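Predict structure. Chain length: 146.
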Amino acid sequence: MSTLNNNLDKRLLNAILTPQDYVVDAINNMYMNDANFVILQDGFKTVGIFTHGDLKNRVIAINLDPTKIKLLDVMTTDLKLFDINDTLNECLSKIGKKKIGHLPILCQGKLVAVLSTLRLLQMAFQELVEERRHLIFYITGEVSAI
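Prediction complete.
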């Protein structure tokens, strides 16, 4: 099974703010980066994430003013961090049944990418398809179309 390093999209590294920034800054950042989250860092340390779900449940639902609320007060801090050398199976095991939509990927403690759970599942599925092809060829000697 391959590691995360094989298919990372590093474009979303622009979606980074600090816990001291305001919710409105996160909204603008998500809009500008076509993302549904921002990663929150204190220096180079990843300390939280703020998602559309956080915006909906922790700001809008209770009528907070996004221009006055700091991300520190509404961010998710219970993060699962992943290493760039983790295998897809290791990541899937870490996620388990938790509601995790975004996987911050670290290399030597520094954020290098963010991977969506959907993308992780697509990568795992593609590996299963490739493994199936190899097994069919091994057993039958024929190349599988799927």
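Summary: The chain has one domain: 4-140.
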